[in-house]
Design a protein that fits this description.
Blueprint lengths: L12 H17 L6 E5 L6 E3 L3 H6 L6 H6 L7 H11 L10 E3 L1 H7 L6 E6 L2 H8 L7 E5 L6 H4 L6 E6 L8 H15 L4 E8 L5 H10 L5 E7 L12 E7 L5 H16 L4 E8 L2
Parallel strand pairs: 1-4, 1-6, 4-5, 6-7
Antiparallel strand pairs: 2-3, 7-9, 8-9, 8-10
Helix pairs in contact: 1-10, 8-9
Bound molecules: S-adenosylmethionine.
InterPro entries: RlmJ, SAM-dependent_MTases_sf
Catalytic activity: adenosine(2030) in 23S rRNA + S-adenosyl-L-methionine = N(6)-methyladenosine(2030) in 23S rRNA + S-adenosyl-L-homocysteine + H(+)
GO molecular function: 23S rRNA (adenine(2030)-N(6))-methyltransferase activity; RNA binding
Length: about 280
C-alpha cells in the first residue's frame, strides 16, 4: 500500500535540485535532432497548487523554491534565469508563485514532435491527478509500476533514451530495486542518460544504492549532493538530497555548479552543494 504523496513536499530544496538538473540535461539533449524517449518511472501528480492543505501542512517550498522565486529578478546566472522564466509559465498569475510543477510538467515543456514521454504512476489517487493535467499528445500516462515495466519497454524504438527514477523510498528495498533497474537499463540501452534521485537521511540507506551501483561495473556515474543541514544536526528527516546521472552530457557539472553557487546561499547559511564522479569513465 503506497502512502507517500509528493504534495506534502512539493517545491522543496530537493525538487529544486532535481528539476534544475533535469532541465539542464534535457536542454543538452535537444542540441541533436534525433528523437528521444523519456521515461519518468515515478511521475507523481505533475502539478502542485501550493495552497492545498497537503502542501500547506509542511510548507517545504518555503525552504526551496520560495527564496529563489523571491530573488528571481536579482539573479545573474543565465541557466537559473531561464529555468525560473519557465516556472513563471506554470503560474496562472505570472507575478505570483501559486503552483509548483513536477517532473511530468518539466519534461513536457521540452518535448518535441519526434519525442515520446512515458509517465508511470502506481498510486491510484496520484495517477488520477496526473490524468487531468494538460500535457502534449506524445505524453502517455500509465497507471503501473515504473520499474517493473522496464522489462517490457526496453530497448525503446527511438535512438535515444532519457530516464528519471525518482522513488519515494517508502520501502528500504527500493534502494536495491533501483540498482537492479539501472543495471537492466544499461544492459538494454548502453547510451541512455539515467537520472536517479535519492534522499540523504540520518539512517544512511542511500549507501546501499551508491555501493550497489559502484559494484555494478557501470561507468560514468556523476553525483551531486545538496545538503541543507549538517548531518549531525538532523536526527530525523532529510538533511540533503542527491542526484546521480549516468552518461551525463558534456558540461553538465560546470553549468550546474554555476547555477547552484547562486542557489545555495539563498537556501540557508549551512547549505552546500557538492559534485563528483561516483564512478569515472
Ligand atoms: N517525480 C515526481 C516529480 O519530480 O514531480 C515526484 C515523484 S514522488 C517522489 C514518487 C511517486 O512515485 C509517488 O507519487 C508514488 O505514488 C509513486 N510510486 C511509488 N512506487 C512506484 C512505482 N513502483 N512505480 C510508479 N510509481 C510509483
Amino acid at each position: 500500500m503506497l502512502s507517500y504523496q509528493h504534495a506534502y513536499h512539493a517545491g522543496n530544496f530537493a525538487d529544486v535540485q532535481k528539476h534544475l538538473t533535469l532541465y539542464t540535461i534535457v536542454n543538452h539533449l535537444l542540441r541533436k535532432e534525433s528523437s528521444i524517449t523519456y521515461i519518468d518511472t515515478h511521475a507523481g501528480r505533475g502539478l502542485y497548487p501550493l495552497a492545498t492543505k497537503e502542501t500547506q501542512r509542511l510548507k517545504e517550498y518555503r525552504e526551496g523554491i520560495w527564496p529563489l522565486w523571491q530573488s528571481r529578478h536579482q539573479l545573474a546566472n543565465p541557466l537559473l534565469n531561464e529555468w525560473l522564466n519557465i516556472l513563471e509559465g506554470a503560474q496562472p498569475e505570472i507575478a505570483e508563485l501559486s503552483h509548483y510543477p513536477g517532473s511530468p510538467w518539466w519534461l513536457s515543456q521540452q518535448l518535441r514532435q519526434q519525442d515520446l514521454l512515458k509517465l508511470f504512476e502506481l498510486h491510484p489517487g496520484e495517477h488520477e491527478h496526473l490524468n487531468v493535467q494538460v500535457l502534449p499528445k506524445q505524453a502517455q500516462r500509465i497507471y503501473g509500476d515504473g520499474l517493473a515495466s522496464l522489462r517490457k519497454l526496453l530497448p525503446v524504438a527511438t535512438p535515444r533514451l532519457c530516464m528519471l527514477i525518482d522513488p519515494s523510498y517508502e520501502r528500504k528495498t527500493e534502494y536495491q530495486e533501483v540498482v537492479e533497474a539501472v543495471v537492466y537499463t544499461m544492459e538494454k540501452a548502453r547510451h541512455a542518460v539515467v537520472m536517479v534521485w535519492y534522499p540523504l537521511l540520518p539512517a544512511g540507506h542511500h549507501h546501499t544504492l551508491l555501493a550497489g551501483l559502484k559494484e555494478s561495473g557501470i561507468a560514468k556515474i556523476w553525483r551531486s549532493e545538496l545538503q541543507l543541514y549538517q548531518q549531525s544536526e538532523q536526527t530525523h528527516g532529510m538533511y540533503g538530497s542527491g542526484m546521480l546521472v549516468i552518461n551525463p552530457p558534456w558540461g553538465l557539472g560546470e553549468h550546474l555548479t554555476a547555477a547552484m553557487a547562486e542557489i545555495t546561499p539563498l537556501l540557508g547559511a549551512t547549505s552546500r552543494y557538492h559534485m563528483d564522479w561516483l564512478v569515472g569513465e
